[in-house]
Specification:
Radius of gyration: 23 Å
Shape: elongated
Distance between the termini: 66 Å
Largest sheet: 5 strands, parallel
Organism: Hibiscus sabdariffa (roselle)
Strand content: 5-15%
Pfam family, one: TP_methylase
EC number: 2.1.1.107
Number of strands: 12
InterPro entries: 4pyrrol_Mease (IPR000878), 4pyrrol_Methylase_sf (IPR035996), 4pyrrole_Mease_sub1 (IPR014777), 4pyrrole_Mease_sub2 (IPR014776), CobA/CysG_C (IPR006366), Siro_Cobalamin_biosynth (IPR050161), Uropor_MeTrfase_CS (IPR003043)
Protein name: uroporphyrinogen-III C-methyltransferase
Structural class: alpha/beta
Helix content: 25-40%
Length: 376
């Protein structure tokens, strides 16, 4: 039977020598990593109490005393070590026993249905896009798959409202990433998907937005297909489409914007600097949508202006778009970074740059400027 982390976690835990060495003291989650200050977020924050309550099945009973504490006791008992890698490895170690048990259960369930468990098994993996946050933007197909899943591996930007739709017998497992903290490496996520698919599970990989737009869904699909696992992709509304619609911004508009370009604000380690595309992206007749671009926006804006985009180009930054916690900043491109800083917007924030932004009914000078644009 395949176990999680066949190729990667064995190396990690043999190196740590968890059982024989005192170098890693496995702490219950109430002492390692919980934080009750994220209750206002519509998403699963990395050390939120909500995350551990949702995924409590994967932690053994010795770690569940957190759930019985009142809020004052939780605040007093929760502390997050500064070493994020130790947090991650401790979390994985706590989860391994229950993950193995679940694999055993799934194996026996298949054997009881008759026949030997084949190597690759009949289990399927679904890559499901959940949209930018509003559960009403889910496709009907996505809802059906979510409600029939055995195991769902979900990212940080899958909204809590979407996770509320999961079936009562399904198991949820957080595998989200934030800047400076990855609960699982991409390779470890691959191994989890493979192990449970081989055990015959109906595995759903939940991703915010669309799984194939800056979601690394292509990497997961490629890995699993090479292992003989069938992968089905259920598209979601990408943030650019969902959030622009929420604000009444047409990404293209005849006579205003003849094309749209999606850009990631950061790249993989060692990859091409996304700011290098500024020369080609500085097109006044196009719309530029920047994902994950808060940290690089000041430099990007300067480069776009340097390469010919007018400084007064309308722009918008939208935090937690389509959720009840949505916040929006409108400004000319030259002022956008400063206004974002003043408003203290946080991730996830989508940035839209282009003349079409002025067509939004929420643009400060919307009626007059929109009329001029359309007439032009």
């Amino acid at each position: 039977m395949a176990l999680p982390y066949t190729h990667y976690y064995k190396l990690s835990f043999s190196a740590l020598n968890v059982k024989k060495s005192g170098s890693l003291h496995l702490q219950p989650i109430c002492c390692v990593q919980c934080n009750s200050n994220f209750s206002s977020s519509p998403f699963t924050e990395k050390h939120s109490l909500q995350r551990y309550q949702r995924d409590q099945w994967v932690y053994n009973s010795n770690n569940q005393k957190l759930l019985s504490l009142n809020s004052d006791d939780r605040a007093a008992s929760c502390s997050v070590p500064s070493d994020s890698d130790s947090i991650r490895l401790n979390d994985i170690a706590l989860q391994l026993p229950e993950l193995r048990k679940l694999l055993e259960v799934l194996k026996h369930k298949r054997e009881n249905c008759g026949g030997h468990v084949p190597k690759n098994g009949p289990g399927n993996v679904f890559l499901v896009g959940t949209g930018p946050g509003d559960p009403d933007l889910l496709t009907l197909k996505a809802v059906k798959v979510i409600q029939k899943a055995d195991l769902l591996l979900y990212d940080r930007l899958v909204s809590n409202a979407v996770l509320d739709l999961v079936g009562p017998d399904a198991r949820l497992l957080y595998v989200g990433k934030t800047a400076g903290y990855h609960s699982r490496t991409q390779e470890e996520i691959h191994e989890l998907l493979l192990s449970f698919a081989e055990a015959g599970a109906n595995v759903v990989r939940l991703k915010g937005g669309d799984p194939l737009v800056f979601g690394r869904g292509g990497e997961e699909m490629d890995f699993l297909q090479q292992q003989g696992i069938q992968v089905k992709v259920i598209p979601g509304i990408t943030a650019a489409s969902g959030i622009s619609a929420e604000l009444g911004i047409p990404l293209t508009h005849r006579g205003v914007a003849i094309s749209v370009r999606f850009l990631t604000g950061h790249s993989r380690k060692g990859g091409t600097n996304p700011l290098f595309v500024a020369e080609n992206a500085a097109d006044p007749d196009s719309t530029l949508v920047v994902y994950m671009g808060l940290s690089t926006l000041p430099s990007l804006a300067q480069k776009l202006i340097h390469h010919g985009l007018p400084p007064d180009t309308p722009a918008a930054a939208v935090e937690r778009g389509t959720t009840p916690q949505q916040r929006t900043v409108f400004a000319e491109l030259k002022d956008l970074a400063d206004k974002i800083k003043t408003a203290e917007l946080v991730s996830p924030t989508l940035i839209i740059i282009g003349k079409v932004v002025a067509l939004s009914p929420f643009w400060p000078q919307s009626s007059k400027e929109a009329s001029c644009l359309v007439e032009a």
